[in-house]
Design brief:
338 residues, alpha/beta, 50% helix
Amino acid sequence: MRVAVIGAGSWGTALAQVLAGNGHEAVLWARREEVARGVNEAHRNPRYLADATLHASVTATLSQAEALSGAQAACVVTPSKYLRETARGLAPLLGAGTRGEGLPIVVCSKGVEEGSGLLPIDVMADVLGARGRFAVLSGPNHAEEVVRGVPAATVVASPSLDAARLFQDLFATEAFRTYTSDDVCGVELCGAFKNVIAIAVGLSYGMGFGDNTAALLLTRGLAEMSRLVVACGGQALTCMGLAGAGDMVATCMSRHSRNRRFGEMLAAGGTLADFAAKTHMVAEGAVACKSVARLAEERGVELPIAQVVRGIVWEGLDARAAAEALASRPLTTEFHGL
């Protein structure tokens, strides 16, 4: 199949490599000419994962129309805060016909839209309609490892079993196992929430705390994630799977994790702007900590770690004072609120 991959960052590049390795033609849409030229001429993305040699069937273009021309499926891999803008740009290209209502699209962005509180699949459907043709892909998948074929697994969730199975088959390889789910809400909320906890873990390590503290934040963060997922209509069991606990562990503990690195930078006095300038990447958890807090407030869910992260990132809260406040919270049963 010919698959349009909208977004040529680290994750878009890695997924294009998986598709190509599975016998498909992957066409990356890139914003920068240097990226498109590097992919087409040298089989490398010079800006992201520059050490990886890409399959010959991975190509790139600066035109979304060209990427979508003849495509039988599309993969949207842009930061969540740009997702609505991306959907609006795709709208005129996805009119009536074979590329329109029926084009299957998998959304690989992780976050919650600021302001509306909508999940990525709902943002796309809000602009483009036909929610049943969308799927989402999420799991413990660091692009740096996936692009090299290091064994990994992911979840494809969709309101449509046909869409879920289509993308399951498109991406499944011996090194990249794919599992299906119908819990779109749970999978997407897990993907957003784990980035918030990864910032907390990065802050913890940056302040000189150890692995015990990281494990505390990770497991209590998992409890917060579960409370929010259930309150929003998702399934608690999803939080124990690849999209939940799996992605939480990978994002909180890995040297590849951009959100953990952002937390470490915050602890050293850095800012969100500093992180973007240094890495050319978006720390999705910075926006997610505000968005999930809004969802929690609307549903009466208690998220103490997420609230602290929001305060540190956006409100100038002192990290050590915040840690002391968390440590002084009243003791309760381990699984209260679930």
